[in-house]
């Protein structure tokens, strides 16, 4: 464990807690894409298959349980909660996220580190995580206005993967045999997808104006 | 070794 990875995990944890807090306190999911949340639940479900078979550390197991619990409860809130679900913008959240899942499955079957069920599912979860934010970014483009908590949520989500990139660089130089091209490339693609959002987020923060994404 | 096989990152 290094400071970059710990900071990345904490930022990631904080991003889901910010989202859960927002939905739980104001009983609204306005501006949040259910599709992105479903994709994240799928990412965690396929990545943490080994949660009961391979014990790595208490920290690792606890964090996996928190991420699984929070992502599925966010999906539950938006789908089932009688008040929250009314604020879900079904007409705007139209990204066909099934079109993201299939290519990721095919790519995971073609490019992986080891052709086993667990490894292919793990690789699938990496590819899916890289593109899972797309429905959310499309929704933001459509609804144009971003409320603070949603903006913070996306910023933290992008920041966590950027910190992971620093973690991979650190591990590459400090641990021999630590080479995971698949992880590095999908993590880089994921972070690049946030790049334009970061640009507008930073400028709105600098000029202290409401965050507006261009049409 | 088994360690690197197991993905130790979240």
TrEMBL record, chain A:
Residues 1-31 form the signal peptide. Pfam families: ER_lumen_recept. The chain crosses the membrane at residues 55-78, 99-115, 121-140, 152-170, 182-202. InterPro entries: ER_ret_rcpt. One of its GO terms (molecular function) is ER retention sequence binding. It is found in: Endoplasmic reticulum membrane. Keywords: Endoplasmic reticulum, ER-Golgi transport, Membrane, Protein transport, Receptor, Signal, Transmembrane, Transmembrane helix, Transport. GO terms for biological process: protein retention in ER lumen; protein transport; vesicle-mediated transport. It is a multi-pass membrane protein. GO terms for cellular component: endoplasmic reticulum membrane. PANTHER family: ER LUMEN PROTEIN RETAINING RECEPTOR. Belongs to the ERD2 family. This is ER lumen protein-retaining receptor. The lineage of its organism: Eukaryota, Viridiplantae, Streptophyta, Embryophyta, Tracheophyta.
